[in-house]
């Protein structure tokens, strides 16, 4: 497992993400992936454990689970967009399992891939079951959206987004990375 440290710079570094110079004495993040060169990041960019993995599955699922709102926003299309991305990861994982020799499919690696496939299938199903209109109706109750004041509409929109976030997070909670 890769480790992430937060040392103070003893020499000048450059952030591998934004290119900002990390000056001597500044705190920075240093990730040490297994058998690869360290990753240096400024504290503004941050560094997550899944970014240090050599596994495409871990990188893909980690990014979706932790960055979905940055990547897809939070609107009526978000759950389907995430489900589509996870479907791509599902297909790649299924292909990996299918292309393994039968003996290995029964071993630990095959079982791990099958568990990942099952979890992806569950998350995709849960995401596809999210109905934005039902969430909106649930938050509105008997209220007529068009008759609300601008301030009340903003509050309602935020409540709808909060409910959508909760449902998406719940759907993604079965995924390990």
What does this structure look like?
The structure is a single chain. The protein is mainly alpha-helical. Helices cover 54% and strands 9% of the residues. The chain has helices at residues 56-72, 78-98, 102-105, 108-128, 132-140, 150-172; strands at residues 3-5, 13-14, 21-22, 28-32, 39-42. The strands form two sheets. A three-stranded antiparallel sheet has the order 1-4-5, with no helix packed on it. A hairpin with a 6-residue loop joins β4 (28-32) and β5.
Q: What is the molecular shape?
A: flat
The total strand number stands at: 5
Q: Please, what is the average pLDDT?
A: 95
Q: Quick one: biggest sheet?
A: 3 strands, antiparallel
CA-based gyration radius: 21 Å
Q: How helical, in percent, are the residues?
A: 40-55%
Secondary structure layout plus pairing:
Blueprint: E1 3-5, E2 13-14, E3 21-22, E4 28-32, E5 39-42, H1 56-72, H2 78-98, H3 102-105, H4 108-128, H5 132-140, H6 150-172
Antiparallel strand pairs: 1-4, 2-3, 4-5
Helix pairs in contact: 1-2, 2-4, 4-6, 5-6
């Amino acid at each position: 497992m890769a480790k992430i440290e937060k040392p103070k710079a003893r020499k000048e570094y450059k952030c591998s993400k934004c290119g900002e110079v990390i000056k001597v004495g500044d705190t920075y993040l240093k990730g040490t992936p297994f058998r690869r060169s360290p990753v240096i990041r400024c504290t503004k960019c941050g560094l997550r454990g899944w970014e240090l993995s050599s596994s495409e599955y871990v990188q893909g699922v980690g990014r979706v689970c932790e960055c979905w709102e940055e990547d897809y926003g939070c609107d009526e299309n978000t759950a389907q967009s995430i489900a589509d991305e996870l479907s791509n990861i599902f297909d790649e994982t299924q292909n990996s399992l299918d292309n393994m020799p039968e003996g290995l499919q029964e071993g630990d690696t095959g079982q791990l891939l099958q568990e990942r496939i099952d979890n992806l299938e569950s998350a995709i199903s849960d995401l596809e079951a999210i109905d934005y209109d039902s969430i909106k109706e649930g938050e509105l109750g008997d209220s007529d959206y068009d008759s609300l004041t601008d301030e009340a509409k903003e509050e309602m929109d935020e409540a709808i987004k909060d409910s959508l976030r909760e449902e998406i997070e719940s759907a993604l909670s079965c995924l390990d990375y």
